Amino acid sequence: MPTRTNRAGIVFGALLAAGLFASGHVRAEIYCWGEDFGSNIPQPASGAMAELPADATDIELGVFVACGATPAGGGRCLDLTTGQELLSVPGGYRNLSAGSFGACVIDGEGGLRCAGDPPLSDGSPDMRAQYQDVSVGPAHACAVADDGSVMCWGADDVGQASPPSDIAASAVATGLFHSCALKTDGSVACWGDDRFGQASPPIGLNAAAVSAGGDHSCALTSRGNVVCWGNTDSIPAGLDTGMPTPVQIVSDGMQSCLRDRSGLVRCWVSEPEFVRIMPDPENLSTASDIDVGGRVYACAVTD
User: Fold this and answer.
1) pLDDT tens per residue, range 269-281
2) CB under 8 Å, gap of 24 or more: what pairs does 271-275 form?
3) Contact 248/233 with Cβ under 8 angstroms?
4) What are the structural domain ranges in the chain?
5) What would the CATH number be for the domain defined by 10-301?
6) Residues 117 and 102 sit within 8 Å (Cβ to Cβ)
7) DSSP secondary-structure letter at 139?
């Protein structure tokens, strides 16, 4: 997941199984589109998403978890399979992240609370520490303490939860089987699965934000350029053409989205065996923030 203070706005997920598009209440400010949705024209979302706070501006979505909150007023995370609250989000929180089956929040004092998978257990971060960033992936999670140290927990079969001990980070992003951290000097460190080079960032990279997907990773440089590594075959040519001021890039699974300051969004999807392009949304009002969290759906909260 990417660098951010208020991360969400556009979210991908396996939403039919979660009931997001089921009949029910409609939240007009949330729109969805995508390959399996059958159109790149955003349509109003309904169903489980309507149970999130009506004023939510920060949305986090995994496969079976959805969170909605406002930085000032807080909110909650729901288990979409049961409709039950999974995690309460306090007002004044620093950060919020949802993975496939769980979620974590950092409260205003830097305290870390998590629910669902991966569970906080042996190997979890020090709960007495204060944290500035957290990212929850499908089966592992990582957090950055106020002193810059990175701590991870959950699945570690290819080293995705074993960060270097000598880095000082400001943000962290968890991919499918790897993780990346934005270091305080602007460089990027990654660890875990590197079959496609997704854990091998370019030397000399001066980044302002970093994201980690399935077989690729991306960063926004301090000059506003987009740099990706790993499986980059699906990245559209001239990705940032017509986007004069990119301000956010996010990746998860096999997809990424890029947002510029005006709210223009570009998305794409890749898989190791084949390549699919997530169509850019048509007729979408400006998006205030973006996030990805599944496969071939997208949703946006518009201004």
Assistant:
1) 765 444 454 556 6
2) 271/214, 271/215, 272/196, 272/215, 272/231, 275/233, 275/234
3) no
4) 10-301
5) 2.130.10.30
6) yes
7) S
